[in-house]
Design goal:
- With 192 residues, this protein is α+β, with helices and mostly antiparallel strands.
- It has one domain.
- 33% of the residues lie in helices and 37% in strands.
- It has five helices and eight strands; from the N terminus they run ααββββαβαβββα.
- The protein has an eight-stranded antiparallel beta sheet.
- The chain is globular.
Length: 192
């Protein structure tokens, strides 16, 4: 009986150990371009090499919101990925509603954020919550949240400038982020 119980426990442990760890969608940090292309089910929108980075962009719908799905590779290793939501609204407050919807999904998956951000650069609309979407669009307010896991940093946010809004969720590899930082620093250093 002990032998059977030990065998069942060992098989269950092996099954758990063999399940892949996904950091973004069906991809893990360090995955190659070919590996991501093989597992991504959305339609390719664009593929580009620029400044030492290989960028794959797909179109998809996530949580009923249309978006771009962007993968960033350095030296054929996935280092960063993000959703850029493209939903348009006539009422700017709906962008904050979309952010809160995505934030709640992230809370369900990762728990409470390690940091919440509400940053006012101009108080014009601060006392008028029904105008906060307009405040974001004008660049007066940024709203965001951050999560940290063992392998990733996740930043969700909505911000604006000149009445153009941007809603994103970005995932960054904790162990590989230095590859992109090094390329960005080298590009900046070349200019000086």
């Amino acid at each position: 009986m002990k032998c059977i119980l030990l065998s069942v426990t060992l098989m269950a442990s092996l099954a758990v150990a063999q399940q892949p760890t996904y950091d973004f969608r069906s991809a893990s940090w360090g995955a190659s371009v070919a590996q991501v292309k093989a597992t991504e089910t959305a339609k390719v929108f664009n593929e580009a090499n620029t400044g030492g980075k290989h960028v794959l962009t797909y179109r998809d719908v996530v949580a009923e919101l249309p978006c771009y799905v962007v993968y960033v590779f350095i030296a054929d290793q996935l280092v960063r990925a993000k959703y850029i939501f493209t939903q348009q609204h006539t009422n700017e407050n709906a962008f904050i509603d979309d952010f809160n919807k995505i934030k709640n999904i992230l809370i369900d998956k990762y728990g409470q954020p390690t940091a919440d951000l509400t940053r006012w650069t101009n108080d014009l609309y601060r006392d008028h919550p029904d105008e906060w979407g307009k405040a974001v669009a004008a660049g007066h307010l940024q709203v965001g949240a951050q999560w940290k896991t063992e392998r990733s940093e996740i930043l969700a946010g909505v911000k604006g400038d000149n009445f153009t809004l941007e809603h994103q969720v970005q995932y960054t590899s904790e162990s590989l982020r230095h590859l992109e930082e090094d390329i960005d620093k080298a590009a900046t250093d070349k200019k000086f």
